[in-house]
Amino acid sequence: MTYRVAMDIGGTFTDVVAYDETRGTFEAAKTPTTPGDLAEGVFSSLGRAVDDPADISFFVHGTTQGLNALLERKGARVLLLASAGLRDVYQIARGNRDRMFDLHYRKPVPLVDRYATAEAGGRFDSRGTELAPLDEAAVRTAARRARDEGFDAVAVALLFSYVNPAHELRAGEILAEELGDDVMIVLSHQVAREWREYERTSSAVLEAYTGPVVRRYLGRIEDRFATHGLTVPVQVMQSSGGVVNASFARRHPLQTLLSGPVGGTMGGVSAAALLGRPNAICVDMGGTSFDVSLVLDGRPNISNEGAADGFPVLMPLVDLHTIGAGGGSLAYAEGGGLRVGPESAGAVPGPACYGRGGTRATVTDANAVLGRVDPDWFAGGHMTLDTGAAHRAVAELAATLGLDPVELADGICDVANAKMAQAIRTLTVEHGLEPREFVLLAFGGAGPMHAVEIARELGIEEVVVPRFPGAFSAWGMLGTEVRRDLTLQFFTPGAGLDGTAMAEALAQLAAEGVQALAEQGVPAGQHRIEHAVDMRYEGQDYTLTVPLTGPAEPAAEDFLASVAARFAGLHERRYGHATPEAPVEFVTLRTTALGGLPELAAVPYAAAPGYAPEAPVKPVVFGGAAHDTPVLRREHLAPGQYIPGPAVIVEATSTTVVPPDATVNVDDNGFLVIKLGGVA
Fold first, then answer.
1. Which residues lie closer than 8 Å to 141 by C-beta, 6 or more apart?
2. What is the spatial distance between Cα 276 and Cα 15, in angstroms, rounded to a whole number?
3. Are 523 and 574 in contact (CB under 8 A)?
4. Which of 122, 282, 331, 409 could form a disulfide with 268 if both were Cys (CB 3.0 to 4.6 A apart)?
């Protein structure tokens, strides 16, 4: 037997999904993450799904190592090398305020101090013509400083390197000569081949800051897998929704920044296709965080730029919104009121009910008090919850606020649900999208427990819980394609467009994409190339990305009129207005190279064979009142089965909570389709 395996290493749990290529079946497992040695949790989880790592034919995983290093400010010491006279570009940043009405707003503290910025002479103009040669002596001086002062990485961001990278390439050669392999060297044009000096510099600094951490982690994982008999390359999920091998990820570690949560979005794309619903809100509630992303018209909502903890990033990435709301989020009193999160109990000590020394009330403890989890069969029976500890933790906080413990537990869930609903509005309502027009796809270890109440807040009538919800991000990684994104600055007004030159540039990008896929081991017959161009009206600052039909399209006689009409349509949908007669500008060419992996020929879903025990009935609190509620095992639910609420449905990776006014149908895919009653 051979297996395709995907793994998602979260802040609280490590999830694994194994696909048996011989039988077409899936196996999922979940174990606590081991922060001291992540590999321990990896192999503990893997051992529950695969007997022998030597049987693995494909292995992909998502990691939050880089993101955690950024959020916790535990990244590398970075020396920034800038063009002479431009050392303050990174410090000045932009003058905009992300929170207009926050009187206490402060810009994020730069990851590199002004003191740690060096300059080197040399200059290109905006067309890539050299005005002054590179000051190689200054570069060598910066290298000696990096070595003598113990910097872990050097980020090089020189003016107009996105047009002509010659100076950055030479600076990289000099730094490599002086520093060897001990210091990571990052060149901004290799991170983001686009204009906007601050954003490109920020992207380079982020890669330098998180890169050494990611490199060490990937090296350890590969070494440990090799010693356990894994013979295939380790693949890593990218922030853009594709996978690359670990050797590429080590050279371009910034691509893995959102590696973990993006797997859930790609799983959402597959699930939406199975459901026949092109638009879905994907919510991933784990132990530490709550991630929201969208599937629009059957595709992941991908942006060509974004932000990481307040710092701009120029690279394609799935548009995710994350807040600190998970099963381990701590509840506390502040100013006489109840607060939940963003601080989390994490994997250690975890919620009080985990019995690992936690004493403070969490969202999971609140659910335990309300009877919404099965303490004897939590995480597939691999964990037994201490409900007494949960009651004590909630009661202690309830006494502080003068509330009944059950009333407080209900309040903790309500506060968490309200925060998560607001996070969804950030990606929908604030962008002109109506949540009621979407299906809510709920996953993560805690997502199905809260999904119905979150949907109720938003007026959504249908919630879908896929198979293996607690390991759904890992499941999503299994069906993801290899992906490489390439860009080229191509600034020209529409009136002056040379369509032949644009077509030639796209053809060159396509050739680079094919070569990149070949380096990833993708057979020639499985390549797919997509092209697009960033456009704007003359006088605008930012752009919209317009898909192209192929690399030769710009050479067609009617191209300008055709692409301008498409741009106007996108502008109308995005901003509610368009000016079709206004002149347009072309800014950036974008090419995406995709390499398909063998499809997962899974067997049709069926209920587990054998005796289905009678469901025990337990009191569960809904709306402040206890209801006699059956606790069902999901593996015994057959396609077509109808279940009226209330119900609690348990499985190995998660628990689904169905209130009294909702109903559940099991569809042909084994998904739980929950219909809400009383939604306005």
1. 118
2. 27
3. no
4. 282
- CB neighbour burial string for 595-631, b if at least 16 within 10 angstroms, e if fewer: bebeeeeeeebebeeeeeeebeeeebbbeeeebebbb
Residues 216, 331: contact at Cβ < 8 Å?
Answer: no
What count of other Cβ atoms lies within 10 Å of the Cβ of residue 219?
12
Return the amino acid letter for 35: P
Strands 78-83 and 153-157, by their bridges, are: parallel
DSSP state letter for 608: P
d(CA 229, CA 57): 12
By the 10 Å C-beta count (0-12 exposed, 13-18 middle, 19+ buried), 296 is classed as middle
Which has the closest alpha carbon to 591: 527, 649, 652? 527
The per-residue pLDDT for 680 is 44
Write down the pLDDT at residue 679: 52
Q: In 422-451, which positions are buried (b, 16+ CB within 10 angstroms) versus exposed (e)? A: ebbbebbeeeebebeebbbbbbbbbbbbbb
CB-CB contact of 236 with 218 (8 Å)? yes
What is the model's pTM? 0.87
Q: pLDDT tens digits, residue range 473-500?
A: 888 898 888 999 999 999 999 999 999 9
For residue 436, give the amino acid letter. R
Ramachandran bin of 127, using left for φ above 0, alpha for ψ from -120 to 50, beta for the remaining angles: alpha
- Tokens 């030769």 map to which residue? 552
Strand bridging mode 462-465 / 439-443 = parallel
Amino acid identity, position 413: C
Cα 384 to Cα 30, 290, 404: the distances in Å are 14, 24, 25
Helix 405-427 / helix 447-458 crossing angle, nearest 10 deg: 70
For the sheet with 13-20, list strands across it.
Answer: 25-32, 13-20, 3-9, 56-62, 234-237, 243-245, 482-493, 584-595, 527-537, 544-548
Give the sign of the dihedral formed by CA 149, CA 155, CA 158, CA 159.
negative
DSSP 378: B
Separation of alpha carbons 330 and 324, rounded Å:
10
How far is Cα 463 from Cα 507, in angstroms, rounded to an integer?
44
Measured in whole angstroms, the distance separating CA 467 from the mean position of its chain's CA atoms is: 20
The 3 state secondary structure assigned to 71-137 is HCCCCCCEEEEEECCCCCHHHHCCCCCCCCCCCCCCCCCCCCCHHHEEEECCEECCCCCEEECCCHH
- Distance separating alpha carbons of residues 676 and 460, to the nearest angstrom: 8
Local structure of 387: helix, strand or coil: helix
Give residue-wise pLDDT tens across range 123-182: 999 999 999 999 999 999 999 999 999 999 999 999 999 999 999 999 999 999 999 988
